[in-house]
Write a structure and sequence with these properties.
358 residues, homodimer, 11 strands, DNA-binding, alpha+beta
DNA sequence: GCTTAGCACTCAGGGAAATGGAGTGCTAAA
DNA sequence: TTTAGCACTCCATTTCCCTGAGTGCTAAGC
């Protein structure tokens, strides 16, 4: 049996309606749609075929049909109409994003919140630094009273620092020497090349400040490691409870407890190699716990060598068209916002995002 | 009518039992308790009195009694037996905390998670810096290609930095002058005293680097502001769904959507002036949404002039004794962990927590 | 005077049975 | 090929009844 145009149209209508109502869809309801020119009996036949083809399911004999996972898949891939954002929607997304973005971790939280609000679903947001993690320059600032500040500068104007105290007396001149040595030997090195052997060599050349080298190297390595790490936030879990599919508390708990940073942590990885917006329908999902739900996600560019990702989790019956549209618009707007940096407070000074630490 | 010892004993037993079972407690059940020497009829009389006194409520005529808010209050304040942590519990809390604590925001997340696990309830954790926010020292590092790094050092060895770029050519010597001026004029000043007048004066003395002053001041002010800010995390919301009082999805959603950073943000403030462990029973709660639930929270010391707070949210029927005990132990252990800093990697170097930024 | 056995009464919760209605598949006519 | 018609299925809802836990009160017992 082949999938005629009419069958597709019927399927689309069913999915559309089911997305709206969350109730099994009957032949009458479809036949009653304004642009449906056939009687309910005809629709019934088509529905029987669609069921046989595996695109629809029937909860029980005397109920309507609901889309199967395959049905949703087809819908997402071929059938759904593009959802066009209203001016209001674009506006509210725009103004939401325009507020000054702070540190990346705050950003991630904020974006998760915004996306969750915009879609009325739980949202995930993640930012991961791309792995071009090397130190461009070392800087040692003598900080008085036997301590100094180690400053690491990385590509994309990222700066990291750490205050180090030592009982042993280090002269400011020793630090100068040490920083020269470090900059000569250890810049532009990826994590893997910072070997014990290198450590020894640097220590030997460092003279009086030699004992500091291991501390510095340690911190550097830790930073480079974290540098490739992912920052993520989840927000709005409770929105699921408003949906009829989660009226059952047990189901709700199961899904809610799996929507957290831990179980969702592999989503960003899934996204890394994907392009555009990705939809994972039910059983296609990565995590076992999500196999009754769907995930829609997309990437955006943060700049400074960082990658962002936003996504939502919802019932397989979710308004894919709308969610996809909103998510994409979000991603686009975010990418744009990062591409053109904020206006500086001072006309002739271009200043980066504030870098803050604890 | 006075609250005799026997009435108290009955009340305690009722609350204890209700906490365990979540079902209205009848006179028979209390009479059957091993250390209860009276018949159910006597208990019934006592229960009638306790109801008249406002400590108990009756869902309907033929049901048992449940504690009222006043009943819980009395229970928490006077009646409940201390819960003694088992060795296993203390052990698991200890090992959980012993893992190296990273940056404060990560710490907050981690603690929230641990507390949630330990109590099987949603947990809040917050850390706020005390408001002794002043800059101890300014440092300007020339970073080549028309940019420099501004480093602010604050009390408690906190260091903050920011990379600033400028098209106008600034010599390294100008930066030296500027930093001297800044250190002379702007150290140890609280936020309030950084006035426009000061800005002007500093700009005048700064010479060639004068135009940089506003940017620097701006950033400094922003940092000082954030410095007094609160970092908080909420974890384990879904645990509520396991409890019988939240079997009703609507109730569950109501409470769950109010357990987030926003609505709970005033809890740390409540805690600030309190001592020890605080229990907010039902209607005593700050937020309207929580008036059917209870909050237990306590403070701990992070050191470096920072204050921590942990708390849990749960049904009014929660095991106050156990939760209080666990929370207190957590707080104690955390305070201790921060009091004795980690061993340094290098015997003669004491290094601070890593300071990282994006 | 306190305690307790006894008893009539109340009422929520649960199961069984009855009802209604939405939806189906099939057949036969258009 | 489409559609009207019809018998059939079966879920969801409602209604009803019954059970049993729990109460308050009274009167007898210690």
């Amino acid at each position: 049996m082949e999938l005629t145009e009419r069958k597709k149209k019927v399927l689309r209508s069913i999915v559309d309606l089911y997305i709206r109502t969350a109730e099994p869809v009957g032949s009458k309801a479809i036949a009653a749609l304004p642009d449906m020119k056939y009687s309910s009996a005809t629709i019934r036949n088509e529905m029987a075929d669609l069921t046989a083809l595996g695109y629809l399911e029937q909860p029980h004999t005397s109920a309507g049909r609901i889309p199967s996972a395959a049905g949703y898949r087809l819908y997402v891939d071929e059938l759904m109409m593009d959802y066009r954002l209203s001016i209001d929607e674009t506006k509210s997304i725009n103004t939401a994003i325009e507020e000054k973005m702070q540190r990346v971790d705050k950003l991630v939280e904020k974006v998760a919140k915004l996306v969750s609000q915009a879609t009325n679903l739980p949202a995930i947001s993640a930012a991961s630094r791309s792995s071009d993690a090397v130190v461009k320059r070392f800087e040692l600032i003598y900080a008085g009273s036997g301590s100094f500040i180690l400053v690491l500068m990385m590509p994309g104007d990222q700066v990291v620092n750490k205050l180090i105290k030592l009982p042993l007396n280090v002269e400011e001149s020793d630090l100068k020497v040490l920083s020269a040595v470090l900059n000569a030997a250890m810049t532009d090195l990826p994590l893997e090349e910072m070997t014990a052997e290198l450590l020894e060599r640097v220590m030997r050349s460092a003279g009086a400040a030699g004992p500091l080298v291991p501390v510095i190297l340690d911190f550097t390595q830790e930073m480079l490691k974290n540098h490739g790490s992912t920052n993520m936030a989840v927000y709005g879990q409770s929105r699921l409870l408003g949906l009829p599919e989660y009226r059952d508390v047990d189901k709700a708990q199961k899904i809610l407890s799996s929507i957290d940073e831990d179980t969702l942590s592999n989503l960003p990885a899934v996204m890394r190699n994907a392009n555009g917006t990705k939809v994972l329908v039910g059983p296609e999902n990565v995590a076992q716990e999500l196999k009754d739900s769907s995930v829609v996600m997309t990437k955006f560019d943060i700049g400074e060598g960082m990658q962002g990702m936003i996504g939502v989790v919802g019932p397989t019956r979710m308004d894919y068209a709308q969610v996809t549209a909103r998510l994409s618009y979000f991603a686009e707007t975010l990418s744009k916002a990062f591409a053109k940096p904020e206006q500086p407070q001072l006309p002739e000074a271009i200043s980066e995002e504030p870098h803050k630490e604890a």
